[in-house]
Amino acid sequence: MKNTKSQAIRKTWVKPFTLTLLILSLFSCSVLQAFEPSNTANEELSLDLDYQAIINEATALGYGLPSANDQNIQSQVVALLKSSGVWQKADVIYYFKGSGSKEFKLINWKNPTGPKAVESGGSLTWSNTGATGDGTALINTNFNLSSGSHNYAQNDAGIYINVTQAHTTKFGMVGNDHNSADYNDVDMRNKLQRQYINSDGSQAPLFSFAGTGLFGASRNSTTTQILSIGTVTTTVNLNSGIEGTQNFTLFGWGGNTSNTNRFDGEISYALFGADMSANLADIETAFAISTPNQSDTQAPTAPTLSSSGQTSTTADLTWSGATDNVGVTG
Fold first, then answer.
1. How far, in whole angstroms, is CA 79 from its chain's centroid?
2. Rounded CA gap, 116 and 142, in Å?
């Protein structure tokens, strides 16, 4: 009888103990397998949250999304712009490169649920390298200073565009409609011409945005403006005017169809916002990314699992969160 009782006691207590060990074992195996790093080409990485908002908006509107690789690349671009401070200074960011529909490329990355840019007046050619003008088309950004708060200000402003194919005959790249009440006077041209940003309307010195590259026009004072090609800046004297209220346009001035406007070259990306003349290298570095990030070879730390409150049929399990040098989800 003593042995029988002993066996019964052992059976009573072995069951929950064995069950707990089994659960712990299965959970630990799953955790270790799930947290192993992967170097495969199909490895999926989480997207930057601000970039994910762009994808969410495009999905909701039925736009054609970029490929998985291009989403990976573009998410890296956003992350670098944020870490360098460029993202925080921008009001408008357009990325015309890569795959995805034209409608996707006309989303303002800084305000994906806001007004979308519109192509009008002709027909741009959209490709993996950018948007190319036909001499008659332009992009109305629908970015307007007349309402809301903006980083772009009269004496703290910057416009930056990357030209990957120079003009053939028509060279107006960026503009803001002119009228008698507005002296925002934004004009950037891909030829030896007078360049303006927020001027008083007087004649600007000659400066050439010839050829290709990252072209910038910015202002951080009432008496000068900064013109840049790549990371090289030139300060020219030109007094500040007043802030205008017209929509900003790419590939020309909205109301001007002369032979100086409606750019027929190619633009791959554009930014409008505060003066970013100190961040030109950061802009070039971020937008130069062309390879998906598949270098997450360091595994996250596995959660620490513990058990308490075992009964004959239940066991309470708790575990800590995982940490990682890139990030964890789930």
1. 7
2. 7
Give the H or E element holding residue 62.
none
Instruction: Dump pLDDT digits (tens) for 187-197.
Output: 899 988 889 99
Q: Rounded to an integer, what distance in angstroms lies between the CA atom of residue 321 and that of residue 324? A: 10
208 beta partners: 192
Residue 74's alpha-carbon distances to 68, 90, 253, in angstroms, are 10, 16, 29
Distance CA 160, CA 276 (A): 9
Interval 135-171: pLDDT, tens: 999 999 999 888 889 999 999 999 999 999 999 999 9
Query: Are 235 and 277 spatial neighbours (Cβ–Cβ below 8 Å)?
Result: no
Region for residue 326 given its phi and psi (left: phi exceeds 0; alpha: psi -120 to 50; beta: otherwise): alpha
H or E stretch at 128: none
Burial class (CB in 10 A: 0-12, 13-18, 19+), 233: middle
Tokens of 6: 């002993």
Half-sphere exposure (Cβ direction) of 106: Cα atoms closer than 13 Å: 21
Place of tokens 């999926």: 44
Tell me the C-alpha distance between 86 and 49, whole Å: 16
- Distance, in Å, from the CA atom of 70 to the CA atom of 291, rounded to the nearest integer, reads 8
% of the chain at pLDDT higher than 90: 59
Instruction: Tell me which DSSP letter residue 279 carries.
Output: G
3-state secondary structure 126-153: EECCEEECCCCCEEECCCCCCCCCCCCE
Q: Which residues pair with 306 in a beta bridge?
A: 318
Q: What are phi and psi of 282, to 5 degrees?
A: -65, -40
CA within 13 Å, CB half, 23: 18
Helix (H, G, I), strand (E, B) or coil at 165: strand
Residue 118 in tokens: 């519109």
